[in-house]
């Protein structure tokens, strides 16, 4: 009986964690904005690198 209660408590705890993990809140919004900003910076750096290589007539223009 004790193990059944412990198992039920563990299941309830994991369920609560799963619900909080799926909720959309300010932290998730901030994380998404951060990810988008990082992606934009990466794209800008890659574009700038390709432009420099193109202007130098490099054989390989990919960065």
Summarize the structure in words.
With 63 residues, this protein is mainly alpha-helical. It has a domain at 24-63. It is built from two helices and no strands. The longest helix is centred in the middle third of the chain and has 30 residues, at 26-55. The chain is rod-shaped and about 75 Å long. The mean pLDDT is 80.
Compile the SSE list and pairings.
Elements: H1 2-22, H2 26-55
Main sheet properties: none
pLDDT averaged residue by residue = 80
The radius of gyration computed from the alpha-carbon positions, rounded to a whole number of angstroms, is 24 Å
- The percentage helix is over 70%
Q: What oligomeric state is this? A: single chain
Features:
63 residues, 0% strand, 2 helices, 81% helix, mainly alpha
Short characterization:
This protein is an all-alpha fold. It has a domain at 24-63. It is built from 2 helices and no strands.
């Amino acid at each position: 009986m004790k193990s059944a209660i412990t198992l039920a408590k563990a299941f309830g705890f994991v369920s609560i964690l799963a619900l909080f993990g799926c909720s959309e809140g300010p932290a998730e919004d901030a994380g998404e904005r951060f990810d988008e900003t990082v992606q934009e910076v990466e794209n800008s750096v890659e574009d700038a690198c390709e432009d420099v290589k193109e202007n130098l007539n490099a054989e390989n223009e990919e960065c």
